[in-house]
Amino acid sequence: MCQLLGMNCNVPTDICFSFEGFSVRGGKTDDHRDGWGIAFFEGRGCRIFIDEKPSVTSPIAELVRRYPIHSTHVIAHIRKATQGKIALENCHPFRRELWGRYWVFAHNGDLQDFDYQSTGVYRPVGKTDSERAFCLILETLQQKFPDGKPPLDQIYPVLKEIADTLSSKGIFNFLLSDGENFFAHCSTKLCYIVRQAPFAAAHLIDQDLTVDFRELTTPSDRVAVIATTPLTDNEVWTPIQPSELLVFQDGLPLKFD
Amino acid sequence: MCQLLGMNCNVPTDICFSFEGFSVRGGKTDDHRDGWGIAFFEGRGCRIFIDEKPSVTSPIAELVRRYPIHSTHVIAHIRKATQGKIALENCHPFRRELWGRYWVFAHNGDLQDFDYQSTGVYRPVGKTDSERAFCLILETLQQKFPDGKPPLDQIYPVLKEIADTLSSKGIFNFLLSDGENFFAHCSTKLCYIVRQAPFAAAHLIDQDLTVDFRELTTPSDRVAVIATTPLTDNEVWTPIQPSELLVFQDGLPLKFD
């Protein structure tokens, strides 16, 4: 299994503090050492850093911890391999283009009875159940809305149906974004926190590190951080309920159910 | 306009030496300072580093210069913007998936009379003529061979025809690879060198740096480096002829014409 980290904000923000705590779970405070990855949306652009090395020792992870990249939509993943060997092509997040936008996907879980063989235009490159699920999601959306991106209220029920179907085949916690919408689906375990004024200090669980957000923010900033398990020990994280699909917008969760 | 750098080898090799010389053209020895990028294939996996900052000052380019990533198929690009603003989504190389493999593309040139509007499954995210050309290439290949990747001798004439057509609309030097085949098309300016035993020392044009490949290679190693203009001043680079489309395999150019 794996762990997920996501961030959605109303202004571009760096994820260095959260990634600092998250990435040590990739081989130090936890055993998710079979690769890692992180995707940053910057406007329509998107860059992904991936490595099959553990995130605690990867020189690329070290760069991500030290070099602040400001983004409104971030998805990160540390891997503990279930399906698919330790290899670059099996590292999350995965990225494809749909409707002239990049879509990024990372999965925590294991889909045991899922032997989807794509014959469409989205085909997996690696051998994970996760990438197969991502291809199915995009293939379904593309076939349902071939002309272009529809409004969110039309995408949501299609995505919810796929999420429900795949959750019946195993564990299917995922983060999905196109840099405009940010989806977080809980099948078993996922939680979030919204940081906004009045800001306070936060202390990591996995490292003895404290950041005082009062020194780094303006009163109108709002940041949602989504993670498999809480990253800080002095803040209240909200569990997402099993089978819940949240959409984050400007750092706040919206509910469509 | 821009500059291209490619590498194709028979064993995974790092590109640190060539990238050292190439990347200083992104703002120091030349003025290609509007972003840069590099793609490494590792088996079926592929990772891309891109940045809209000049390659001479980008912290990510610094990582690529210092951290040896071993790959058999590498495509790099430094940008001087013609079409499309300076932004992450307009940085080369671009990547899409076709037939269950990643395809990577970088372009040097300017297609003036090219207003292709994709209505298919490959749509540009950014605003460059280059990404539009890449989408046209993949859309054409996908429609021609919808079931899966055909042999190289079937792909080649289709690609050659697109390259010829687009070259009539402006300058269209490009590098294209799926990690298995490596295509290099010259419309106006592109050259290459094949390094193999007996190896010698090479000295960069853009930096006073010499590497003695005798110390770093085994007798069976073979590496082709492809670039817009030669990177070294003590080796003989072979110009690719205008309208020539070469396929590199295990560090050697094949000709299909």
Automatic annotation (TrEMBL), chains A, B:
Residues 2-251 form the Glutamine amidotransferase type-2 domain. InterPro entries: EgtC-like (IPR026869), GATase_2_dom (IPR017932), Ntn_hydrolases_N (IPR029055). SUPFAM superfamilies: N-terminal nucleophile aminohydrolases (Ntn hydrolases) (SSF56235). Pfam families: GATase_4. Gene3D superfamilies: Glutamine Phosphoribosylpyrophosphate, subunit 1, domain 1. Keywords: Glutamine amidotransferase. This is Class II glutamine amidotransferase. The lineage of its organism: Bacteria, Bacillati, Cyanobacteriota, Cyanophyceae, Chroococcidiopsidales.
